[in-house]
Amino acid sequence: SVTHLDREAFGDCNQLASVKLSKNLVTIGMQAFDGCESLTAIEIPNGVTTLGDYAFHRCIALTEVRIPGSVVTMGKEAFSSCWALTTVVIEKGVAAIGESAFYECTALVNVTIEEGLQTIGARVFGGNLEGKVAYKNLLQVQMGVTVQKSRYKESRSWGEGVESTRAMFRTPDLHGYMTASYNLFKELTLALTGTY
User: Fold this and answer.
1) Which pLDDT score is estimated for 7?
2) Nearest CA among 75, 111, 66 for reference residue 93
3) Cβ of 78: how many Cβ atoms within 10 Å?
4) The whole model's pTM is what?
5) Is residue 59 within 8 Å of residue 84, measured between CB atoms?
6) CA nearest 82: which of 38, 133, 143, 45?
7) How many angstroms separate the CA atoms of 75 and 192, rounded?
């Protein structure tokens, strides 16, 4: 029985509409369901302790989610850019929510947080723009850019003699990505990926 879903296990499976996860599952890895644009529902089994960074990022058809109390670690942007997400229930026992866990969940209107939550990650304000262009089956280009301002709710000091600040270290205000693929022949495709 499956206990761990590795990084990008179902990443960009655009046609994946539903999935039944093992009751023995412990870890949902980084980007495990990232970009599963047709996924409308997910039942996270009680027993899962880790939701990796970007685990359900860009699941744009997902409408509701329940985080079981067994979850100890919820990574950053675990459910970010889930535009159809309207309802979130965080069960008793979840102690911390990762940074920007529900960033750009613009339809989110119902949030239930049961007892025990101690930490909610930093605030991130900004916008994201993504686009994709394809020419027949020869060329495909996809790119995205994010402009944001990431700040902790309260000032923090990062070392002795260092002035406290609300700014997040190693979090740029502008970043993005680009991927391109070109089919030279039926059997050969060239691909290029970059981030900035």
Assistant:
1) 93
2) 66
3) 28
4) 0.64
5) no
6) 38
7) 27
